[in-house]
Amino acid sequence: MIGYFKTSNGVIGRADAPGPKTWIRLAAPTDEEIRLQAASMGIEPHRLSAPLDREETSRWESDDTGTYLIVDVPYRASDGSFDTLPLELIATHDRIISVSGIQTEVSEHFIAQSALTHNIDISDQAGFILRFMYAVSKEYQQDLKEIDQRRREAEKKVYRGIYDTDLVSLHRLETSLVYFITSLKGCNVVLDMMKRYADEVMDRAHKDLLRDVMVENQQNIEMATVYQAIMDSTRELFSSLMNNKLNDVMRWLTAVTIIMSIPMIVSGIYGMNVPIPGQTSEFAFVILVSGIGLVCACAALWLKRRKLF
Q1: Residue 115 to residues 8, 14, 167, 189: CA-CA distances in angstroms?
Q2: What is the longest distance spanned by two Cα atoms in the chain?
Q3: Nearest-5° Cα angle at 290, 288 to 295
Q4: Buried b or exposed e, range 197-221, using 16+ CB within 10 angstroms
Q5: Cα 302 to the center of its chain, rounded Å
Q6: CA-closest candidate to residue 229, choices 153, 148, 109, 290
Q7: CB 191 within 8 A of CB 94
Q8: What angle in degrees, to the nearest 10, is found between the helix axes of 284-305 and 204-270?
Q9: Mind listing the pLDDT tens digit for each residue in 198-244?
Q10: pTM given for the model
């Protein structure tokens, strides 16, 4: 899918065709679309297809054909879990192109935010890329907050009972945090490389914007690390509670087994084919059952006091 965008008064809007000072957005592009765009921009096709590999690492590089930046951006899968995938930004002499395996929410939010801030100018390529990176950081932050909110909701279910679906949901959230931390650290490496480049060519405004992006990214790393530690604690809580409930059930079953063994012992004795005291009495059955009931009640009371029942 190809989309063309231009900026007017700091706001991103649709364009009919590519041209100077345009942003070309490729989302899940076909081989033919990659070939045509690469030919029009004078770059190698593999440059455009790199982010389609889910295992592509984050990096920043520059040569005579343009500046190439690949970072992982967050997205929400169809099952509601969170994941990351590579997104590439390429800045040539007169246009910017982005490539990703899917149409990400980051791009949509970036476009929507421009209508509020009125500060996007595609001709300012460094500013455009830095503001896009800032939008990526904000997207991470929003998703991290939702992950923590879901964890809180799962934690509240502890008092109502724990089910397999709760453990699976918690595992998915924990996996999402692992992906996020790995991707954010990769993004941090890219920002450090950009900072070294900024010291040579960027003006003060761009340096300030880069510093803001680095601060946001570092904050996201710290948030994700803290949430991961809390998630581990929540998972251990779930495991401890399940073990405690299992122990309670086993203790209860053991106590019941002890109590039920009393009438079995008595019935076994009176079932022997030998003379038993009181067997000729007409009240033998009543006395026997009453005695068994009394002994069982005493045993239950003793187990209760010992907190075994």
Answers
A1: 10, 13, 41, 30
A2: 113
A3: 95
A4: ebeeebeeebeebbeebbebbeebb
A5: 50
A6: 148
A7: no
A8: 150
A9: 666 678 888 888 899 999 999 999 999 999 998 888 878 777 777 87
A10: 0.79
First CA to last CA distance, the chain: 66
Q: How many CA atoms lie within 13 A of 128 on its CB side?
A: 29
What are 147's two structure tokens? 């992950």
Both tokens of 280, joined, read 């000729």
Domain ranges of the chain: 2-236, 245-305
CA–chain centroid gap for 11, Å, is 32
pLDDT of res. 287: 76
In the block, residue with structure tokens 């991470």: 140
Q: Under CATH, which number does the domain 2-236 receive?
A: 3.30.460.20
For 278, the 3-state DSSP assignment is coil
Q: Identify whether the C-beta of residue 190 lies closer than 8 Å to the C-beta of residue 220.
A: no
Rg over alpha carbons for the chain, rounded to the nearest Å, is 34
Evaluate whether 40 touches 32 at the Cβ level (below 8 Å): no
Helix H or strand E encompassing 8 = strand 2-8
Helix 125-156 to helix 204-270 angle (10° resolution) is 20
285 has pLDDT over 80:
no
For tokens 């964890």, name the residue.
151
Determine the distance from the C-alpha atom of residue 179 to the mean position of all C-alpha atoms in its chain, rounded to a whole number.
Answer: 7
Please give the structure tokens belonging to residue 41.
Answer: 């921009």
| Alpha carbon separation from 306 to 191, 247, 253, 302, 309 (Å, rounded) | 63, 15, 15, 6, 8
Give Cα 237 to chain centroid, integer Å: 19
